[in-house]
Amino acid sequence: MKRGLLWFRTDLRLADNLALHAALQDCEEIIPVYILDEQWLGTDRWGFPRTGPFRLQFQLESLQDLQTQLSAKQSDLIFRCGHPAAILPELAREYQCDRIYCSKEYTFEEIAVERALEEQVEVSYFHNSPMIHPDDLPFAIEKLPEVFTNFRKKVEKYSQIRSPLPAPEIISSPTLESADLPSVQDLGRVGVAPDPRGVLAFRGGATAGADRLRHYLWDTRQLSDYKETRNGLIGADYSSKFSAWLAQGCLSARTIYAEVERYEAEVEKNQSTYWMKFELLWRDFFKFTAMRYGKKIFLPGGIKDKTKNWNYRPETVQRWIDGATGDAFVDANMRELKETGFMSNRGRQNVASYLVHQLGQDWRVGAAWFESRLIDYDVTSNYGNWIYAAGVGNDPRDRVFNTQRQAERYDEHGDYRELWGEG
Ligand SMILES: Cc1cc2nc3c(=O)[nH]c(=O)nc-3n(C[C@H](O)[C@H](O)[C@H](O)COP(=O)(O)OP(=O)(O)OC[C@H]3O[C@@H](n4cnc5c(N)ncnc54)[C@H](O)[C@@H]3O)c2cc1C
What we know:
The chain is α/β, with parallel strands linked by helices. It folds into 3 domains: about 1-130, HUPs (Rossmann fold, 3-Layer(aba) Sandwich), CATH 3.40.50; about 130-160 and about 205-295, Serine Threonine Protein Phosphatase 5, Tetratricopeptide repeat (Alpha Horseshoe); about 300-420, Orthogonal Bundle (DNA Cyclobutane Dipyrimidine Photolyase, subunit A, domain 3), CATH 1.10.579. The chain has 17 helices and 5 strands. Strands 3-2-1-4-5 form a 5-stranded parallel β-sheet, sandwiched between helices. Strand 1, helix 1 and strand 2 form a beta-alpha-beta unit. The radius of gyration is 21 Å and the shape is globular. Belongs to the DNA photolyase class-1 family. GO terms for molecular function: deoxyribodipyrimidine photo-lyase activity; DNA binding; FAD binding. May have a photoreceptor function.
């Protein structure tokens, strides 16, 4: 009886899961496992919890949904909290698994876990997260174009996006220990009440992710106006809000792409439908940037090794975090992030620029606060965008946003500033 251990990471879904698909092809029985990695439950060097309350809640809901889906396929989910490199080999031995199947990650802390695991057990990796499979890039990763536009033009011309795989009918597993998934409180954290001003009542899991995709494309056809509305600030539908589900892998980027193509064939094809694919290419671009530049995306000088003198004044940073800088547009966005775990792309660009260029603070403390607070934190999108904002990333120019003018343009009547005003 050949058994494989399926280690779920940021791929909390059964459909279009390449690791699951390969495990089912190779093995008669599958042992599905999720480890809540202790290193993400700790505190970072700036004193922020690495996983703040919004994302933790979303993650636990996603696991609940995954467990329900596995049960419906006659399997289950083993859940543990601790260090994957210590727990997984033990489980592999206990359940007599020949190999671990999992998604590939692209950043150094995740890669360190992979290395430690490989020393003890056979591991096979699969690219579940990017839309474009790295093997389908028209250049070696060391030759990744530095500028997004050059990357985009090449992949649009030469790369195919693979079709998503359907969820398996059945997943055979032996009798597994029944997992009692913890609540936020069980993990010693305080839960957060939803803020009625928030853009969306986010709920974790592949089921809710599929619902959101259906809502945005098919039920409301918001996709048709995406390019015109995507710079909005208030409400559920100015942009897709797919990011939180993408970050945990509840939704696959390939699935979104395939649905957009179907929409283009069945409803309409316009600049907005193209723009959704365009934005998903940004997401890929930052993943490949991380693959190419390794640890540099986390360093003060970024991928350019630029020497800049970054300041760090805790009181200044705290005012930024609390939405108390005195710049009403920045403050409104920062309060939204603090109270809901979400902020629009327009807001993120402005507050990042403000922290770095107006307040002159180290971009890494801003990135760390986002890491802690964002419900949709994705390591490569976050750090890729932050180095870009700080002028140490892929953009040849320093991108300084005039937050007053941005407020006049994108919050013309002040509704957003009023919504998130000091009250
Ligand atoms: C400083 C800063 C930090 C950011 N941190 C994150 C992060 O941790 N996680 C994250 O998912 N996004 C991050 N973004 C990118 C972007 O702001 C969010 O993806 C977007 O606001 C999420 O809302 P949406 O799903 O409605 O986006 P939509 O506008 O509907 O876009 C659809 C999808 O395209 C992708 N996308 C769109 N814009 C970007 C972008 N600039 N970079 C990468 N992917 C993009 C996302 O996957 C998004 O879900 C950051 C941007 C900035 C400026």
